[in-house]
Amino acid sequence: MRLAAAIWITALALAAGGCGERAADGAPAPDAPDVLWPDPNGSVVADDPIEAARSFVETYIGLDAPALSGFRSTGGGSGQIDAFRRGEDGRPLAAVAATISLVRREDRWFVTQAGSPEVEIERPAAGATVAPPLPIAGRGRGFEGTVVLEVRAAFATEPLAREPVVAGAAGALEPFEAALAFDPGDAAAGAVVALTGSGIAAADGFAAFPVRFRR
Predict the structure, then answer these.
(1) In whole angstroms, what is the distance from residue 163 CA to residue 196 CA?
(2) Which of the chain's ends, N or C, has fewer CB atoms near its CB within 10 Å?
């Protein structure tokens, strides 16, 4: 998976602070700006990383029956899980749609970000403090040359703003850029999401990471 360096640096910072496969005793659950899913104060509780990744892909991204890899520990109570594409017959393909990064806190698993070989968000950086209109820039390739950009409030499954942009359709990733106007309302945190497909698991790659809203 290729992501902008700033995103990887932020992901490592989010995952730091644990020991082995467990966070230190008494470590608090992540704050809203530090995770994508699930809400630390919500009703969804994931005590297994696969469960957390599956809930994220199905509920947050909106893809049914994702084909997932096993969990790969990266140390410090964090790790990664791949989501694979599916063929027209429904069988999983070797192609990775996205790689999901997770962290364990208080015996619960949280998704901190997702990155895809199909789309790279280069601006803003993960964890950045942003305000509307939000410039989003990167490179990607999508279904019929389209990448869909979204700004969401933290843990929301519907966007505050959505805009399709023209990117590559095949071959090399092509640059895209847009400025999304949105009203954060009372939300202090949110997320930037990019979707590269037609809304079906066989076509979609996706990338997402949390941001803070300037008050």
Answers:
(1) 12
(2) C
**What is the spatial distance between Cα 16 and Cα 192, in angstroms, rounded to a whole number?**
22
Q: Are 45 and 108 in contact (CB under 8 A)?
A: yes
Closest alpha carbon to 40 in 192, 151, 184, 155 = 155
Close Cβ partners of 23 (under 8 Å, ≥ 6 residues apart): 17, 77, 103, 104, 105, 106
Cβ contacts of residue 114 below 8 Å, gap of 6+?
A: 36, 56, 61, 83, 98, 99, 100, 101, 206, 207, 208, 209
Tens digit of each residue's pLDDT (9 = 90 or more) over 1-12: 433 334 333 443
Which letter does DSSP use for residue 205 in this model?
-
Query: What are the DSSP calls for 124-177, one per residue?
Result: SPTT-EE-SSEEEEEEEB-GGGEEEEEEEETT-SS-SEEEEEE-BSSSS-EEEE
CA 2 – CA 54 distance, rounded (Å)? 22
Q: Cα Rg for the chain, rounded, in angstroms?
A: 16
In 10 A of CB 40, how many CB atoms?
18
Return the sign of the alpha-carbon dihedral for residues 130, 131, 137, 142: positive
Residue at 20: amino acid letter: G
Four-residue CA torsion sign, 203, 136, 53, 15: positive
| Two structure tokens written together for 112 | 């901190």
